[in-house]
């Protein structure tokens, strides 16, 4: 190997094939007889590279090799001595050059005739599909003649049908099968997923970013095409490596065009475009023409539209569509077709010259406008070619934006913003388009952009208002302020939302009503603690005929929240049900959607089946597009329901989806997701994670008395302090809460198990008066809500703890539907029975409690009960035998990992022991095992590993 030679990168995605070849090499060694392996693949799939790897493997294992590589000095052409490998190079073809296949067969005959019979040999023949019948017969005779010698024959061929050999190879292989074992290697399938990403990384020099990987995915997983693409991009300086990630440089358009921002894929690099065009050149001419027209129509497109543009009957599309789908260019839906890959769509679109493209868009718009449902699609064509002053085009684009608002808000926003660009600043019509755009962006979850657009347009319009009649702008500005208020509220900026809604209401004309402004002002007033909001909501409810349905629904929802805050749980749920029944349209952006709060209320009252039905209903009535606020909301609603049912992993996943960065989220409801994440971490005993989530709540979502999540936040903070053995903090928090009836009520309504926990914690902190106050408050809630089973169970549980009533505790356990509360009742009963000296019954209850906690995944709670059982001389296994590696993080047992996490969070051995309910000596033992398995020697190193 020369000093500048480079070895081939590791082969990707062919582990099965290499394993099969390796197994055959072993078989040949063991049985001392020949085997034949067939390697069939389409062009560029990597069969030659597989032969290179096979030769290398055989050489490493002492095989003599006969292959197509250039022979060394003194060797017969196409042969190599044992241990010789193909030379290193950049590609498999360069590393494995082969002469005419016929000469290789002749070389193999010479080699094997002169070779000793017991020498293990690998014979590789590539491109067997090019060999004439006479040479194939000679090859077959040679294979059969040598069948009792330790030879592995690796025969490769190219076939459009992958592993299926073409004739006459098929007949030749059939004759061989009758004389000795002939098997195919596993199919060289297209590279996907991790294998494709690793191949791109090999030639890009770093892990690919999504945009780069997306280009590679367009090449049907063909390794040779992917390698050629990535190499070309690197040569063209189209790849930037930043922080260990290979990014695709944005392609800058040569001239400004709406084509690059209005509902079409972004520009692609020239190298990719050239590769795709070369591949598309093999298509039939009618197919290529149809695909270029389809690219102009957009993705998806209707077959009727395409046939109309082509000027022929739909039957003429059969051959065209069949070829395009077979080649993986189009995907067939129920009613339409789509381009499988957006970058390929862009290449086809760019293949149409701009003047022709504009003419085709005008033709498509005229065709679509003649159809009853075609105005939206016509707008999507005209948006690319409309010019200022084109009144008819502006009207169509505007109407299309309005129609798309409910079903595709992102596209609606794009159309409305384009309308703004076609109208000069200072025109009242521009305000109307801005309102549509802001509303669409809000629905799509792009709240920051919606707010920025509204602010800029309002400021711009105020500057022109002095030179215009006031009426021309006042109403438009008020409407836009209302839309901005809605976006501010959904973003969680309630005070700014209230100011903006107030300004909108002040700017409206007498006798008119901005529904959006009324609803937003009502919601923001409630969330900021404005007591006048209650009276305004009741006033609207007393005069339903004077208000729009959406306003009435908002007032009922607000009233229900007030009822809940006052402890009227049953009435609140009933009002929310009525609001949901009234709100059937789903046409406007919901600011106080009754379904949201009904789902939360039903979850907190253990009505899980109805809560699930309400969430499903919200999904069906919401916008279908996933990357919208409506699409993001179900995860927020499901997370607390899953937590209440004891499905921690699913609850955590839903909560993370709700606050994730990949797509829109709803900041107004986001605290609920962080509360779920904190509760899940606490149940699992991950105190460090729970503390981080509590801190996030405190920093990003400041709590106010009127906040719907205040009670749940107080509960999580208090339970975290208890888990951290900070009983002073628990005592301070509970004492402060008990002194404020409204706050205590909010705390008790956060969860059916809260009342019992507060009593238990108060008694442990030597605060009997606080415990009695909690029980009394729970009893008041029971009196207010005689038909709410969850409230009855909570009150019964709390009073039984105060009175130390074993029968009442047993009854509370039967009343609870909440599995966490049921397990806690069993634990409380066990402790009480133990205090009374009934050890046998106590052990039974504690055992049941530990089992229920274990099923729910409540590791922290189960450990506490297990420790109490251990004190009674009862030991319960809490581990499972799992096959683990000998070292590394995955080698740690469950207990070792828990110890490592606590120590990495800064806890001492004593603190970790208290948390896990084990001795400090045991913590030390587990910590030594952690150090050994992770090959570290200090806490500092452990913290660094966990960072």
Overall pLDDT: 85
Distance between the termini: 43 Å
Strand content: under 5%
- Helix and strand content put the structural class at mainly alpha
Q: In which order are the strands of the major sheet placed?
A: 3-2-4-5-1-6
Q: Report the biggest beta sheet as strand number plus sense, adding barrel if it closes.
A: 6 strands, mixed
Radius of gyration: 36 Å
Number of helices: 46
Unreliable segments of 5+ consecutive residues: 1-6, 69-90
Gross morphology is: flat
Question: How much helicity do the residues have?
Answer: 55-70%
Query: Total number of β-strand segments?
Result: 11
Q: Could you write a compact summary of the structure shown?
A:
The protein has 46 helices and eleven strands.
Features:
disordered N terminus; 3-stranded mixed β-sheet; single chain; 947 residues; 11 strands
């Amino acid at each position: 190997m020369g000093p500048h030679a480079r070895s081939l990168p590791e082969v990707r995605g062919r582990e099965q094939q290499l394993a099969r070849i390796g197994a055959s090499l072993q078989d040949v060694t063991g049985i001392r007889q020949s085997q034949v392996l067939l390697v069939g693949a389409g062009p560029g799939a990597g069969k030659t590279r597989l032969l290179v790897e096979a030769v290398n493997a055989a050489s490493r294992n002492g095989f003599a090799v006969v292959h197509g590589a250039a022979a060394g000095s003194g060797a017969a052409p196409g042969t190599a001595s044992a241990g010789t490998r193909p030379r290193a190079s950049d590609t498999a073809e360069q590393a494995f050059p082969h002469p005419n296949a016929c000469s290789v067969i002749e070389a193999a005959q010479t080699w094997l005739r002169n070779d000793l019979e017991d020498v293990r040999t690998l014979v590789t023949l590539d491109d067997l599909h090019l060999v004439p019948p006479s040479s194939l017969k000679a090859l077959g005779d040679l294979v059969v003649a040598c069948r009792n010698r330790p030879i592995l024959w690796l025969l490769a061929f190219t076939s459009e049908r992958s592993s299926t050999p073409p004739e006459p190879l098929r007949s030749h292989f059939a004759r061989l099968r009758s004389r000795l074992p002939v098997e195919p290697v596993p199919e060289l399938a297209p590279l996907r997923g991790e294998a494709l990403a690793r191949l791109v990384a090999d030639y890009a020099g770093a892990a690919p970013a999504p945009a780069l990987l997306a280009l590679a995915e367009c090449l049907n997983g063909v390794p040779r095409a992917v390698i050629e693409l990535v190499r070309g991009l690197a040569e063209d300086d189209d790849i930037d490596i930043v922080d260990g990630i290979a990014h695709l440089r944005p392609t800058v358009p040569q001239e400004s065009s709406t084509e690059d921002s209005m509902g079409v894929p972004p520009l692609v690099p020239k190298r990719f475009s050239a590769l795709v065009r070369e591949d598309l050149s093999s298509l039939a001419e009618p197919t290529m023409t149809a695909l270029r027209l389809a690219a102009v129509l957009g993705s998806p497109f209707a077959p009727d539209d395409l046939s109309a543009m082509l000027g022929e009957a739909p039957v003429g599309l059969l051959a065209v569509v069949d070829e395009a789908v077979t080649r993986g260019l189009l995907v067939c839906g129920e009613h339409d077709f789509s381009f499988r890959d957006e970058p390929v769509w862009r290449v086809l679109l760019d293949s149409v010259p701009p003047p022709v493209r504009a003419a085709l868009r005008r033709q498509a718009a005229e065709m679509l406008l003649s159809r009853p449902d075609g105005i939206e699609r016509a707008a999507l064509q005209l948006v690319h070619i409309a010019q200022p002053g084109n009144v008819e085009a502006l009207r169509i684009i505007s109407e299309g934006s309005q129609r798309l608002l409910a079903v595709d808000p992102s596209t609606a926003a794009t159309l409305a913003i384009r309308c703004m660009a076609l109208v000069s600043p200072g025109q009242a019509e521009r305000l109307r388009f801005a309102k549509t755009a802001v509303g669409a962006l809000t629905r799509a979850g792009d709240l920051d952009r919606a707010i920025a657009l509204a602010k800029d347009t309002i400021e711009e319009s105020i500057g022109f208002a002095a030179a215009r009649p006031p009426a021309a702008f006042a109403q438009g500005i008020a409407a836009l302020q209302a839309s901005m208020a809605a976006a501010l509220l959904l973003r969680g900026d309630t005070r700014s939302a209230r100011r903006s809604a107030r300004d909108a209401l002040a700017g409206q004309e007498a006798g008119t009503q901005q529904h959006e402004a009324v609803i937003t002002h009502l919601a923001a007033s409630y969330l900021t603690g404005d007591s006048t909001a209650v009276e305004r909501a009741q006033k609207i409810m007393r005069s339903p005929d004077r208000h729009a349905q959406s306003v009435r629904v908002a007032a009922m929802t607000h009233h229900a929240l007030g009822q809940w805050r006052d402890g009227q749980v049953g009435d609140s749920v009933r009002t929310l049900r009525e609001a949901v029944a009234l709100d059937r349209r789903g046409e406007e952006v919901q600011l106080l959607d009754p379904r949201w709060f009904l789902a939360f209320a039903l979850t907190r009252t253990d009505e899980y089946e109805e809560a699930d039905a309400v969430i499903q209903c919200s999904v069906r009535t919401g916008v279908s597009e996933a990357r919208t606020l409506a699409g993001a909301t179900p995860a927020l609603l499901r997370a607390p329901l899953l937590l209440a049912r004891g499905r921690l992993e699913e609850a955590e996943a839903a909560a993370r989806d709700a606050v994730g960065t990949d797509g829109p989220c709803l900041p107004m409801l986001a605290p609920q997701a962080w509360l779920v994440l904190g509760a899940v971490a606490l149940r699992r005993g991950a105190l460090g994670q729970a503390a981080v989530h509590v801190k996030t709540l405190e920093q990003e979502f400041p709590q106010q008395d009127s906040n719907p999540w205040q009670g749940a936040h107080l509960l999580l903070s208090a339970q975290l302090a208890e888990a951290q053995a900070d009983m002073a903090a628990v005592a301070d928090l509970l004492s402060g809460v008990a002194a404020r009836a409204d706050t205590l009520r909010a705390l008790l309504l956060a969860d059916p198990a809260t009342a019992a926990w507060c009593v238990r914690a108060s008694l442990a902190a030597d605060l009997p008066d606080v415990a009695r106050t909690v029980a009394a408050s729970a009893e008041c809630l029971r009196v207010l809500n005689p038909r709410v089973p969850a409230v009855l169970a909570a009150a019964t549980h709390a009073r039984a703890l105060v009175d130390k009533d074993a029968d009442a505790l047993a009854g509370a356990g039967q009343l609870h539907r909440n599995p966490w509360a049921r397990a806690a009742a069993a634990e409380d009963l066990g402790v009480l029975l133990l205090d009374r000296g009934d050890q046998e019954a106590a052990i039974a209850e504690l055992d049941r409690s530990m089992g229920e906690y274990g099923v729910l995944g409540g590791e922290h709670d189960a450990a506490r009960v297990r420790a109490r059982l251990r004190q009674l001389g009862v030991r319960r296994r809490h581990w499972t035998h799992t096959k683990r590696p000998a070292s590394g993080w995955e080698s740690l047992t469950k207990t070792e990992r828990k110890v490592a996490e606590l120590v990495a969070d800064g806890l001492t051995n004593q603190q970790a022991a208290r948390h896990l309910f084990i001795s400090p000596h045991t913590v030390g033992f587990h910590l030594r095992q952690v150090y050994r398995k992770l090959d570290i020697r200090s806490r500092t190193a452990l913290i660094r590993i966990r960072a």
